[in-house]
């Protein structure tokens, strides 16, 4: 059983990059029951792609097919014990994935960045490098359009149909995606998406979350989407609820969403002041 400090670190980093880390059950013997990777990981199944295309069209709303390259989202996070943090997320599409930055203001000011392959985390200005898998598959789950649009446009994404799952009384359409463009981190990019068959909107995304100190020690992560609203013509879920092994760890309520803003590439980097955490 992990000690209290280690558990707190896992929860904290999970809340920063909830779906940055997914892995193969077969690769990690400590994997607990949860989403599993389907066979045929390199297949782009036509039915799965058609399902995702329908969702992309629904999420585009009245904005049409204009490309979204950057997104900034701001709001409040409430953790499982009722603590509230002001948060800002920033994403930039790279063609094969996303660069990411999250800032959270509480008693401790914290930042996590994807770091162009060298992820890092800071707390009150003290910066620590993280192992590479911590930055794998970072994606803007708060704006599903970007992730799912990438699946359609990037042939490096595998997409296969999964078994239907009932969520909130709705029998969902289940698609699993995997980003195969980076063999070293492919196993961390498996995501199971569940769509409302009536609206085509995502209701949930699920993956496996490894401990930031030991990738073989995993948890099941789930993010549920609610309160879709039109923002600049795009449909955005203004509320997300993140759970870890079935327990709610964070609820995010967004107050502002900006798309295609000017971004300085340096915003996705931090300068580490101590040694890299190792597996």
Structure, explained:
- By secondary structure, the protein is mostly beta strands.
- Helices cover 14% and strands 41% of the residues.
- The protein is built from three helices and 15 strands.
- The protein has helices at residues 4-16, 46-60, 144-153, and strands spanning 70-79, 84-93, 98-105, 109-113, 120-123, 126-129, 157-161, 166-167, 170-171, 173-179, 191-195, 202-211, 214-231, 234-244, 247-259.
- Helix 2 (46-60) packs across helix 3.
- The longest helix has 15 residues, at 46-60.
- It starts with a helix and ends in a 20-residue tail after the last strand.
SSE diagram, text form:
Elements (H helix, E strand, L loop, with lengths): L3 H13 L29 H15 L9 E10 L4 E10 L4 E8 L3 E5 L6 E4 L2 E4 L14 H10 L3 E5 L4 E2 L2 E2 L1 E7 L11 E5 L6 E10 L2 E18 L2 E11 L2 E13 L20
Antiparallel strand pairs: 1-2, 1-15, 2-3, 3-4, 4-5, 5-6, 7-10, 8-9, 10-11, 11-12, 12-13, 13-14, 14-15
Helix pairs in contact: 2-3
């Amino acid at each position: 059983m992990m000690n209290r400090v280690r558990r707190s670190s896992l929860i904290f980093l999970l809340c920063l990059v909830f779906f940055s880390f997914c892995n193969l059950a077969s690769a990690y013997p400590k994997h607990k029951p949860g989403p599993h990777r389907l066979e045929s990981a390199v297949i782009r199944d036509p039915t799965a792609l058609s399902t995702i295309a329908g969702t992309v069209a629904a999420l585009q709303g009245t904005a049409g097919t204009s490309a979204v390259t950057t997104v900034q989202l701001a709001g409040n996070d409430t953790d499982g014990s009722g603590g509230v943090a002001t948060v800002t997320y920033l994403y930039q599409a790279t063609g094969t994935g996303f660069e990411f930055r999250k800032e959270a203001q509480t008693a401790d000011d914290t930042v996590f960045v994807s770091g162009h392959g060298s992820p890092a985390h800071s707390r009150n200005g003290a910066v620590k490098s993280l192992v590479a898998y911590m930055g794998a598959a970072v994606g803007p789950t708060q704006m599903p359009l970007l992730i799912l649009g990438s699946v359609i446009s990037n042939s490096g994404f595998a997409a296969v149909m999964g078994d239907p799952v009932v969520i909130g009384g709705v029998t969902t359409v289940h698609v699993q995606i995997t980003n195969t463009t980076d063999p070293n981190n492919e196993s961390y990019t498996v995501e199971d998406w569940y769509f409302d068959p009536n609206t085509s909107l995502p209701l949930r995304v699920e993956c496996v979350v490894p401990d930031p100190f030991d990738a073989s020690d995993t948890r099941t992560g789930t993010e549920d989407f609610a309160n879709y609203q039109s923002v600049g013509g795009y449909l955005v879920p203004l509320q997300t609820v993140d759970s870890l092994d079935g327990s709610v760890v964070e609820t995010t309520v967004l107050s502002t969403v900006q798309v295609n803003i000017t971004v300085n590439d340096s915003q996705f980097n931090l300068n580490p002041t101590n040694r890299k955490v190792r597996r």
